[in-house]
Design brief:
The chain is mainly beta. It has two domains: 132 residues, no CATH class; 114 residues, Immunoglobulin-like, CATH 2.60.40. It contains one helix and 18 strands. A hairpin with a 2-residue loop joins β17 and β18.
């Protein structure tokens, strides 16, 4: 769903102060400074005061830590005999989620398995299992709570009395390893978010940014005198700073929200206005996040610093 400010009035903001004038004078080093200054004054009128969560492109993986080391004594009822290869549940919804990516660390992944003290080698899929010294990791998305299974070659179909040990690195549970990068459709951040922080002034509170949001949800269809039809994109708009990127999150608190509830929006379709290699302003669309979305649980700080 795109931009849900239709049907409500834009919250009132403070009026402009005397002295908020435009003009190319001693305070303006160039015409580009004049344009930026005009944008900064314009945004103060009828803007929505938001909090900005900027997605981190690198760093420590969200929830990254050394997972539990498990040791189990295998019994015959732990294995599914009718349909080899054998497997058991390594993770069943409790505790930190294993990092399922096969090429992290030294290139052998972050999940390690031993049978009777002998280290096994991970392969990419169950179909790649060739002998009893190999294992495969399977994430079940078809059942709840989406367990993580360790599969073995059929030569280990009934290893009753064996001791299986495992250890794993952890990962934020809602990141699918097949869609870690945003272009592949992932909705979550691998490295988390950092809140943009700034001191308050006469036009916004601490850590807030000013965003001009559209009043309606749909793009405008325009027809000129010659009957030519064009579509004018209905987008959010802000000044050149702070820089906002795709997948960043804007938080509109209840006092600024048209429905009186705190809303979380994801930034999409970001466009930059650049003149002479300098950023002048920013436009983008936003998608409303549902209350069930994990990103709406990210806390915000109203105190600077």
């Amino acid at each position: 769903m795109t931009v849900v400010t239709s049907g409500g009035s834009v919250p009132d903001g403070p009026g402009l102060r005397y002295g908020d004038f435009l003009g190319v004078g001693p305070a303006n080093n160039s015409m580009l400074d004049y344009v930026r200054r005009s944008h900064e004054i314009e945004i103060r009128v009828n803007a929505v005061r938001c909090y900005l969560l900027q997605q981190l492109p690198a760093g420590s993986i969200v929830g990254s830590l050394t997972g539990p080391t498990g040791s189990i004594l295998v019994t015959s009822n732990m294995w599914v005999n009718p349909n080899p290869p054998a497997y058991f549940n390594m993770w069943n919804g409790l505790g930190p989620h294993p990092d399922l990516r096969p090429y992290i660390g030294q290139g052998d992944g972050g999940i390690f398995v031993w049978v009777n003290g002998q280290s096994l080698t991970r392969v990419l899929s169950v179909n790649d299992l060739r002998n009893s010294s190999q294992f495969a990791v399977v994430k079940r998305f078809d059942i709840d709570p989406q367990p993580v299974e360790i599969h073995f070659h059929q030569s280990l179909l009934n290893p009753t009395g064996s001791t299986v040990q495992f250890s794993f690195e952890t990962m934020f549970k809602d990141i699918r390893p097949t869609a870690i990068n945003r272009p592949e459709g992932n909705q979550f951040s691998l490295f988390g978010w950092k809140q943009y922080k700034t001191c308050s002034d006469d036009y916004h509170g601490a850590n807030q940014v000013l965003i001009r949001m559209p009043m309606v949800t749909r793009d405008k269809i325009k027809i000129n005198e010659e009957g030519k039809i064009s579509i004018e994109e209905n987008m959010c708009w802000t000044t050149h700073r702070p820089y906002i990127g795709d997948t960043d999150i804007l938080v509109v608190t209840s006092d600024q929200s048209p429905i009186g509830e705190t809303l979380y929006f994801e930034v999409v379709n970001k466009l930059d206005s650049i003149i002479r290699e300098q950023l002048m302003s920013q436009r983008f669309k936003v998608n409303l996040l549902s209350p069930e979305d994990e990103r709406t649980k990210i806390p915000i700080s109203t105190v600077y610093p």
